[in-house]
Amino acid sequence: MKSLKVVLITVLMTLMCTVCAFGESIRVINIDLTYDGKTVPYREQEVHVIVDGKELQNLDMPAVIIDNRTLVPLRAIFEAMGAKVSWDAETQKITGEFDDGTTVIMFINNKAGVVNGNAFNMDVAPKIINDRTMVPVRAVAEAVGADVTWNDATRTVNINSYVIGGDDSENSGNNENSSSAGNETSGTEDNSGNNSSAGSSDIQQDPQKVTDLSHVDTAEIDMSAGGTAVNEVNVTSVEINGNDSYTIKTSGKIWQYRYATVLGTKVAVDIYGGSLAVASTNIPVNDAPVEKVRVAQYAVEPYKIVRVVFDLTETAGDYSVTKSADGTSITVHFGKEQVVEPEQPDNPVIGGDGDENPVIDDGLNSINDIEYDKSGDTETITIRGDENISYNIFTLSNPYRIVVDMDNSVKDVGSMPDTGSSKYIKNIRMSQFTETSTRVVIEVADGVEYSSSVGNKYVKLSITKPEVKITQSLINDGKTIRFTKTNGLNVSNITKTYDPYSGNTVINLNGDFGSVYENKTLTYSSSNEEMAYISSAKFNTSNGKTTITATPSLIAEYNIYENGDYIYIDMVDPKTVYDAVVLIDAGHGGSQPGAIVNGVYEKDINLDIAKRVYDLFDGSNVKVYVTRLTDKNVDNYKRAYMANYGADMFISIHCNSISGDVDIYGTETLYAPHSGEGNGGLTSYTLASTIQKYVSSVVGTHNRGVKERSDLIVLKRTTVPAALLETGFMTDEGDMSILTSASGRQKYANAIYQAINEVINKYDYR
């Protein structure tokens, strides 16, 4: 039908010389496309791609639509967005490096990509088409924070970018084009006209639906906040100060914040380490330019974030976002801030000779010296002041940098120390970050490690690079195992197996490499270790074979490749590998037994049924993962988190019980509605209804129906279709007889198996 439709459209356009709204003849692309080992005719109306108001022209390969996704030539889209492009033919790796430090990595025929170490998924993988590298334009643009819209009438893709600001932007507050901290418009207005993006209606109503502002992976943040626990604070109020000024107050010192202009008429501020403790989450203002202020707990994992959204009555113009001197509040001021700037040049020189230093305020700690020293394999940087130094340390990537921020301080350093003999340090620079804080940036080689200590009026950084053959990636934050190649190890012969009982994946190196790699264990060291994709990797040599046991906290698949001197094992989203991914959850476990009736534990029944479901799918094109196949307790939040980051659907298995002499029995299935569900796709209600239908018919239990339960963690915290099956009542003799028999539990497993297959075949689940 599609090919007939295309032919008819082509004929009609040819006969009628149809003219588009711009007065130009509609152009039909009429070529043959060769990709994935096949050649297919392509007869479609031309697609236009506009980046920040400029249309891509003179493409050596036109934009094409495959599987309802627009693909454009790699170099054209990357260069239009200001990126430098590199191509590794051996690994078929695409790398785009943007001026702001953002790095995008993709592989041909792989739907998983990486932006600054964070994985993102593409509906269509990059492809070699007619000897040209083609990438999905929407996925790539949105991965780097751009707003993408589609105009069906003109067949036009519109890409508009916005700028991120905040504490972790290296020169925020000392930008070449800015004379004060944060005193710039952190974005561009949405120029897409009436063609708003698909989620714009949600964005206007819910702070949690605003475009992600973080653009920072946890590898780029010092989660220890200078040797102490991350400073978690309560966001207590948003106060209207008058004169278009608003103050976000907290209970303590703010660890980090980010801000951005979103869709042109919203300003959003994220408070990292924040918990929601405000009296009102929706504050009407109705005083231009702010219409209302909304507050939400945007995230709790991997770390807490409170988001404050200012809905504006007009396009965002000049505004500033500043942190108070004591670090306990953030002030957002709309309009040009009336502040008296210290005397300094329009374009201050970072790390200069001292002539550019601002006037020293007697109330601030004078940072007056930076020393470099070298002893063996350890190099030290010592920063000295007139008083004891209050500081925070974090890292930035691309290039790898150690950043030291010092509060209540002023720059009084004339020149940087000579580091010409250093093996690890490439450059040191310093800036007056804000009026009341200074920043030292140390650019270092990849792979170095650092520790910090504080003494009388100084901060010392000790920098070293361990001489080991196995290192964890400094880029991918718990998502990549990296180790040095060695003679005799062929990456094409490396195999992997998944152990459902442990949840581990065993990487088989197919040879004895114990003398090279030893029996090492890599651990991911972070306060976010629980949510790392790879929490540890253990090398072991036994019986002439070397293996790596990768222990993930989340369900994971792995991509193995070599590049340069290293072999990489990258975690990838299972959905990019398998046709369908299902997470089966055996409720309770370990110290949480669930119901106990006549010496029978609910956790054991749930586990047995989950095992049987897993076995039914063994060898199928549907990948089933399990939250547990042993008697262990899994945190309910983690069960939901595992589903959200890798599964197409989530099914939790439980048993019911009731106290007292009450004649209640039968099966019921619970669900919680999720925002955005519907439009013909699989929903939590549909999944629950299908499971309930099959269990009632296959097992023969009393049908208690489908019930909404929005108070259960595993249902309300999931973002994929999710259902919780209450198989039967352990307190009912009839139900219990089924639950305690092997044949009965197999019937439950068979019913779940049939339900999963039906929803996969019947509904769109991605």
Account of the protein in words:
- The protein has 766 residues and is mainly beta.
- It folds into five domains: 2-160, 2-Layer Sandwich (Copper Amine Oxidase, Chain A, domain 1), CATH 3.30.457; 164-186 and 193-334, Immunoglobulin-like (Sandwich), CATH 2.60.40.3500; 382-464, Immunoglobulin-like (Sandwich), CATH 2.60.40.3500; 470-573, no CATH class; 580-762, Aminopeptidase (3-Layer(aba) Sandwich), CATH 3.40.630.40.
- The chain contains eleven helices and 52 strands.
- The strands form twelve sheets. The protein has a six-stranded antiparallel beta sheet, with no helix packed on it.
The level of helicity is: 10-25%
Please list the strands of the largest sheet in the order they lie side by side. 16-19-20-24-23-22
Radius of gyration: 29 Å
Regions with little confidence, pLDDT below 50 for 5+ residues: 1-25, 162-229, 337-361, 467-476, 526-531
Number of domains: 5
